[in-house]
């Protein structure tokens, strides 16, 4: 299956260190050669890069590794195609608008029969079951809440309910962002790590790179990184329970 990477912070933060590890799995240290994509939130805007080429060979990936884009929320995906051909329109993350917010979504797994679920407002551009699932989720959210619910907790519970229904159709490891919160649902594999003061060094598993975060951060920074599999040696990654939703805001998990 594919692999996911997410980041949620309390201050705009550079994801290049984690991205440099994940992108090696896009054909060099892993089999995920069928494209990759990344979405960075900057205020209400969402900057995205996609490439159907293997991440380890992608000039666009080199650009992302060499250009600092600081963001509060990031979603990244490297693809091993199981549903839908290898092409630009089938690369994650997918994005749509709801309530004047830009929503981004990435998924790994295979969902049996989900393309038979009817859609009303949102339509897929590509042919993946993942994009169909995203459109269905936004349709359901829009149907129940034509305007934003007053409580973020109401929205978190609804996302958890919808993710559970999709999980019943097959593996559904998901990252979803509405520019404010990062929703992470674990069906089989997701782990997360929070870095905060006192910061130390970290070394990537997939390439020879070490960063001393004490030199790159301030004492008030809180940064959570979420990944399909841990990206670094020797740090306290927390494995998510299967069938669970964890939502992050300002770098920390919030109550569902």
N to C succession of SSEs: EHEEHEEEHHEEEEEEEEEE
Average residue-wise pLDDT? 96
What order do the strands of the largest sheet run in, or round the barrel if closed? 3-2-4-1-12-9-14
CATH H-level superfamily: Aminohydrolase, N-terminal nucleophile (Ntn) domain
Instruction: Give the overall shape.
Output: globular
Q: If helices are DSSP runs of H or I spanning 4 or more residues, what is the number of helices?
A: 4
How would you characterize this protein structure?
There is one protein chain. The chain is built from four helices and 16 strands. With 256 residues, the chain is an alpha+beta fold. It has a single domain (3-107, 173-254), classed as Aminohydrolase, N-terminal nucleophile (Ntn) domain (Glutamine Phosphoribosylpyrophosphate, subunit 1, domain 1, 4-Layer Sandwich), CATH 3.60.20.10.
In short:
The protein has helices spanning 16-22, 59-66, 129-144, 152-167; strands at residues 3-14, 36-42, 45-51, 70-78, 94-98, 101-108, 173-177, 182-186, 191-196, 201-204, 210-212, 222-227, 232-233, 238-239, 244-249, 252-254. The protein is an alpha+beta fold. Helix 3 (129-144) runs antiparallel to helix 4 (152-167).
